[in-house]
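Re: that chain you flagged

S.,

Sorry for the slow reply, it's been a week of failed gels. I finally had a moment to sit down with the sequence you sent. For the record, here it is as I used it:
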Amino acid sequence: MPQEIMKGIEALLLKTSHLLLRPFEEWMGRLIINHPLEFFKQLDLQRTNEWPHSGLKALMPLYLEELHHNKSHLGFGPWAIFDRNHSYVIGDAGFKGAPSEEGALEIGYSIVPEERGKGYATEAVSALCQWAFELNNVTEVRAECDRDNIPSQRVLEHNQFSFHDADQDIFIYKRQIREART
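Prediction finished late last night. Pasting the structure tokens below so you have them in one place:
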């Protein structure tokens, strides 16, 4: 990744065994919406036709509007998931807004088809939950997945989420902070 792009964001990079997660800044989101190929070029990434997916592109304008009005919401929207060497995009994950008054967040994730089944979603969700629970105002992370999406359910179960409820064909999971805060 070019050094000038990395400058000033190191505190919001999450590194795991296999991944690098980075929250979408405004300029990154605008490229995803208007010039996705330029996103790959500016971040010096291998191009994939599987990403960005339509859901991310649909969510991005809402996130950018919120981020434009409140810079402290960086991190409470989508994050790009890269391989550890930052050469290609594995997918995206992130939160659907800032914590509620009760301290709850909702998380979502998507991995490009050719990278599924390798544990990357589990690793990304783990890193994002750890980041969120380090914040003083987050007490719970929620997730929804389709009743038929067994791999997504396994990701949540591997991350200590518990089944909470079902709403027609949607399963609702929750993970609450367990450690005491000082």
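What I noticed first: The longest strand covers residues 104-111.

Talk soon,
D.
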